Amino acid sequence: MQLFEKWTYLDSATWLIVIVICTPFLHAASAHSAPKKDLVEYVSPNIGGIGQLLTATIPYVQLPHGMARLAPITMPNISDRYLADKISGFPAGPALLMASIGDGGTNPDAYASGFDHDFETSTPYYYAVDLDTWGIKAELTVGQDSAYYRFTFPKTPRGHLMLSLGTDAELQVVSDRTLQGSQEIHVEFTPIVAKASAPREYFYIEFSRPFGQWQTWFDKKLTQEANLTGDKIGFVSDLAFAAGQQVEAHVGISYISVEQAKKNLLRDSRGLSFDQVQQSTRSAWNKALGAVSTTGGTEKQRTIFYTALYRSLGRMTDITEDGRYYSAFDHSVHDSGGHNFYVDDGIWDTYRSLHPLQLLLDPRRQQDMIRSYLRMYEQSGWLPSFPSIAGEQSPMIGHHAAALILDAYAKGYRDFDVEEAYEAIRKNETEATLLPWRRGPLTALDRVYFDKGFFPALSYGEKEFAPEVDHGERRQAVSVTIENSFDDWCLAQLAKAMGKNKDADYFSRLAHNYQNVFNPTIGFMAPRSAEGKWVEHFDPKLGGGQGGREYFTEVNSWIYTFGVQHDVAGLMQLMGGRDQFNAKLDKLFQEQYSEYKFQFLSQFPDATGLVGLYAQGNEPSLHIPYLYDFSGQPWKTQRRVRELMDVWYGDGPLGIPGDDDGGETSSWYVMSAMGFYPVCPGSPVYEIGSPIFAKTVIRIGGAGEFTVIADGVSKQNKYIQSATLNGRPLEKAWFRHADIAQGGTLILKMGDKPNRAWGSSRQDAPPSMSNEEANATK
């Protein structure tokens, strides 16, 4: 206090000397107090742990695209995982592993423990938590095909390690510190495979100390049997621990065999300690996240960005094991031939921005994913729409592997059998039913699409008569028409590039089918009966019943009216031109729900992240904010994408606007934060938005660095005033992949007011099918 009182009487000259002398030390102290963070330290896996309405995210510990994905298994069955207050155990392949003290027993739920997020560490490479009920600290880390656990016990005469399995399981006590076994694989949706051929997941576990006494259980009875088969079987050890004594469990997993699970564990561990495996996985994530480096932005924005990037690098999953893989598409083990095999992909949504982002960062891996799809085609006869470890699950609509393949091909990445890819896409487009949630041959409903140019809806009041229709998912007729016209466009582009002119003409005609469900009288996409009549009493906002599924996929006509990614120019023509299109697009972001928001969401629970009737939480919306780039008002795109990033993405448990769907919703944020987005995958261009970082450097698959500089960017300075690409003025609100494939620099001058001239000329709009066709006839 005395020192402060003396300093208050110093004259201004003396103060200036003090400031000059002290400033370097202040900077040094600041730098010392806030050391530079590794990128992986920005990742917060608990973001999105509370769902906005439906599914929450899972805080996986895994390697990028790793086969082993670990997260605490919470209970009771609370879908908002972050709100669960008990952990029942941890995944050991198909088994549940848990540590406890006190009484044992045959009920796995009795081993559960309370926990508190304030005493939890959650990262992509390491997880730790205090198991409050037992006074045990649990830690885990991961390898490609293996899991590593470390439990620190209190002093207790009765410490337990428990392992339980579910349906159609096998368990063997191999030695006084080794277990192995397997279980039938359970997946989210019902796979299209015979029960007798359902795949299995195998495990091999080595513990760091002998079990001591142990028992197994079957049918709720404790036994000393070392070999068990059946449902709901388990194992429990019983031994004393000194305070702070640790036991580790190293788990190898496999989809091939128990022997392979053991090999996978030995390969991954390489004699490393738990801490060394953890450090190796941390380094792998730092390298993967380092594909994009950022300068500027806030700590919160970097946390959201790198968490979203982490989520964008989880799928597809590489299930190659020592150069072999199990495929549920023919129930056989195959040699990988030097190209790894990937599954677990909801291509209905991941084609939109997840795969284009992955292609940008790692083209080699993306081409192996395409090779994987082609192997599935060879093994099953179809390109799948949701390839899982259990085979084709076939949820949702569309045959969007066409977009995945065309996007890589159009951007110059062709290390796969293009002729086979074309054959596979063409078979899907011409021989596979378009019905939602179904795989199989064409039906009478499909023939209406080919003959009349739209998928038929039921007439008003008509009861469903087609046996092939899933009565829960309904026909989704308008969405089926729009999304399959996009798939037909993809096939037409590939046919054109390969010189298959007859096919190119035919599928180009089908690509216009979206026009047949646009009702000019009401200005919306609308359902038609098989006779071609517009369905009576149709409401663009609330029509279609639960989830809109009679006519649409999870959302309503307001969103699907803008669902024509491949022909925005043609859509504008249907609406009467740019002015009418912009007015309708503005209205989308302003239109309100029904009388009450809760009523609207009770009908459309997937339509979360609402701005007006635009739904950031559901994938059919994701390209829509960028459509102003096509209609001469790119400054509105710049405003909207910033608003959506600021409002609907956060750094806490509510930080995801809806279902992340394995990273698709997160990948939208990554692309948008970098400043550009692929409105139409398969068209090798990117539409420009408004980056949030002053500088973003993207390492493009080892080919070069693409740098986006947002000069003067801030929260208010979100509007582009001018741009240069690779040293040349850029007057368009888009650029080609070829411009950046080997690296380059995009410089955007930012300001706080829109430049309504930049990117607004008609001739500067991004490519669209109708414009391309018009240019071809000139």
Descriptive account of the structure:
With 778 residues, the chain is α+β, with helices and mostly antiparallel strands. It has three domains: 2-33, no CATH class; 73-289, Distorted Sandwich (Beta-galactosidase, Chain A, domain 5); 299-317 and 346-777, GH92 mannosidase domain (GH92 mannosidase fold, 2-Layer Sandwich). It has 20 helices and 36 strands. The chain has a nine-stranded antiparallel beta sheet with strand order 5-6-7-8-17-12-11-10-15. The longest helix is centred in the N-terminal third of the chain and has 22 residues, at 12-33. It is globular and about 85 Å long. The N and C termini lie far apart (84 Å). Residues 1-34 have low confidence and may be disordered.
Give the CA-CA distance, first to last residue: 84 Å
Average pLDDT, to the nearest integer?
94
Total strand count, please? 36
- Which spans have pLDDT < 50 for at least 5 consecutive residues? 1-34
Characterize the main sheet: 9 strands, antiparallel
Task: Identify the strand order in the major beta sheet.
Answer: 5-6-7-8-17-12-11-10-15
DSSP helical segment count = 20
The fraction of residues assigned to DSSP E strands is 15-25%
CATH architecture title of the largest domain: 2-Layer Sandwich
Rg over CA atoms: 28 Å
